[in-house]
Write a structure and sequence with these properties.
about 575 residues; alpha+beta; 9-stranded mixed beta sheet; 14 helices
Length: about 575
């Protein structure tokens, strides 16, 4: 069932269900037009508290439900509406008219060819849980989703844009042969622990990577392991190929980023672009030069600013012809401009309109397929409120740093590979929750001053790798970490005088390197190789014997052999753009 027909059995426009009660001066939602007003309306105001049934939902969480459809691997599972038969919400208690929030916020996310809007701040006023629960599809991806019941700590959400062509008017786009689709454009959305900043990082579909083995839930409840790729392949094949589900895409992202854990996923298809862009009343985009694509997307836009929706919005997001090198990377820039514009549109226009807000919420929940951990309107609203704490100016859009694939001839390059220097820096910034914006500039300046004092430990000559002697203990809690580090040091770095001393006496919170004063040159060399911060270096007071080794204890901050322990103090130049900036496509 496509986005045009899901949840529209009554053929009633959700926006037409809002009515103004002249006695209270408040908008009320009428979900059933056949009965008395007192039992058919759910009054929704500012910070309206849930009625008795909604409170029960908060206490017990999801209610079990049965499906009338036999699921297949990777198939969306539509949630049944919650509540008693009839699905009618109880009338809310009368409350005074709310004051306008001083700072309403909206956060929009995307999966490449679409945009999903989750509204925070005002969300509690208009979220009609029973009505929207029936719109949401879920997939159980097992332990690929690391998010818990609470929304605490940093959040990493994977947004997957599916290129399946189902739906009216979509046959000219996307994948013809695969009824499941592929991961056409994917965003890793990272939200900082303190909710002061966020980063939406595009992962190019043509990025060459290795896909790991993927345990995948089957319709009978069993788990089948889908084999990974034997050689490098394009990232977009992490979903939809050989029965791979969104959990496979999550595991692939964890693998290529050096261990970034993904809390949840959200997936949408082409129809979502059309329905959501229409629900918000169109999205403003800007072009520095006209686009005339008669053969592919059929996009025909002049230079300057345009408001696009529906088919034009989808064509804008899918088009790459007439842009720069006509590559997927050029198209990603268009998508980022579109998304940033929709965020501003939501903040400036939609939140003050109950009619528009309901349309957007209805369209968004119908478009979504999510993991079971956030598979209800209540859980999505909780997540949205967390994300809505981030100010627009502190949301950065960027693309994973890549270079042309060196294995392809210069005249026929069609894929990319990770940038060997910038990509690990970016991934470490995400892992260490370091902001890509200026939001914490003052705090960072203080930390930098402290780091400069500590960095004096790293100033001085370096020994040769072959002269470095070190014993490695595993206090990280990761099985085999010491041996993997030894293999990396000896085979890749030339530190042949390194020894695996097995497990440390106890688990260590931080990685440390203890050395004698006459081993300082060895310590600096090893710190350079492993990306150890100055705080990890623990100098002793007495010199060591000639062949005495240093002691390296791997701690809980250890992410893998060759992965720096901490990220850089500032973001590498990867061309990030803040969501509050208006940028015209080149």
């Amino acid at each position: 069932m496509d986005a045009h027909s899901r949840g529209q059995a009554d053929e009633i426009d959700p926006a037409d269900q809002w009515v103004l009660n002249p006695q209270t001066g408040s908008y009320e939602l009428r979900l059933n037009h056949s009965g008395a007003q007192s039992t058919q309306q759910s009054r929704v105001r500012g910070a309206t508290t849930p009625g008795p049934r909604s409170a029960e939902h908060s206490r017990t969480g999801e209610r079990s439900h049965t499906s009338t459809e036999a699921p297949v691997p990777g198939q969306r599972r539509r949630r049944a509406p919650e509540g008693p038969a009839g699905g009618q919400p109880s009338a809310g208690r009368r409350k005074r008219k709310p004051q306008k929030s001083r700072k309403k916020k909206a956060l929009l996310w995307t999966g490449g060819t679409m945009a999903v809007v989750l509204v925070a701040g005002a969300a509690g006023a208009y979220a009609l849980y029973d009505h929207f629960n029936g719109n949401i599809s879920t997939i159980d991806v097992g332990d690929a989703a690391k998010g818990g019941e609470t929304m605490e700590g940093p959040l990493n959400i994977l947004i997957i844009g599916n290129d399946v062509r189902t739906g009216e008017g979509n046959t000219s786009y996307g994948n013809k042969d695969n009824v499941t689709g592929h991961a056409d454009t994917t965003f890793l959305f990272h939200v900082s622990e303190d909710r002061t900043n966020a980063t939406a990082m595009s992962i190019p579909r043509d990025l060459k990577i290795k896909i790991p083995d993927c345990p995948t839930k089957q319709p009978d409840g069993s788990t089948k392991v889908i084999p990974g790729s034997t050689t490098t392949t394009k990232f977009n094949e992490s979903y939809g190929v050989n029965g791979r589900d969104p959990g496979c895409t999550m595991r692939t992202v964890k693998s290529l980023t050096g261990g970034i854990e993904i809390d949840h996923f959200m997936m949408v298809d082409f129809n979502a672009v059309k329905t959501l862009s229409t629900a918000v009343g169109g999205v403003k985009v800007c072009l520095n030069k006209p686009i005339r694509d008669k053969d592919y997307s059929k996009l025909n836009l002049s230079e300057g600013e345009h408001t696009i929706m529906g088919e034009d919005a989808l064509a804008f997001l899918r088009n790459r012809h007439g842009l720069g090198n006509e590559s997927d990377l050029d198209r990603i820039k268009m998508q980022q401009q579109f998304l940033a514009s929709m965020i501003r549109q939501m903040k400036e226009d939609t939140l003050d309109s109950p009619t528009k807000l309901l349309k957007v919420a209805d369209a968004a929940t119908k478009a979504l397929t999510v993991d079971s951990g956030i598979g209800s309107a209540l859980k999505l609203t909780t997540l949205a409120k967390e994300l809505g704490k981030v100010d627009l100016k502190n949301i950065s859009f960027m693309t994973v740093p890549v270079i042309d694939n060196p294995d392809e001839p210069p005249t026929a390059r069609a894929t990319v590979v990770l940038h060997p220097v910038k990509a690990p820096q970016v991934f470490n910034m995400v892992q260490n929750d370091i902001s890509f914006t200026e939001v914490k500039k003052q705090e960072q300046a203080t930390k930098n001053a402290q780091a400069q004092a500590e960095a004096k430990l790293l100033q001085g000559p370096r020994a040769k790798a072959v002269d470095v002697r070190v014993d490695v203990y595993n206090g990280s809690g990761i099985q085999g970490a010491a041996q993997k580090t030894i293999d990396w040091l000896q085979n890749d770095q030339g530190v042949t005088r390194s020894t695996n001393k097995a497990n440390a006496p106890e688990k260590a919170a931080k990685t440390t390197l203890t050395y004698a004063p006459n081993q300082a040159d060895q310590a600096r060399k090893l710190a350079d190789m492993m990306g150890l911060p100055a705080t990890a270096l623990k100098p002793g007071t007495a010199d060591a014997a000639e062949r005495e080794p240093m002691t390296l204890v791997l701690g809980s901050d250890f992410k893998g052999a060759g992965v720096p322990i901490t990220g850089p103090a500032k973001a590498p130049d990867v061309g990030q753009v803040a969501a509050d900036k208006k940028v015209c496509a080149q």
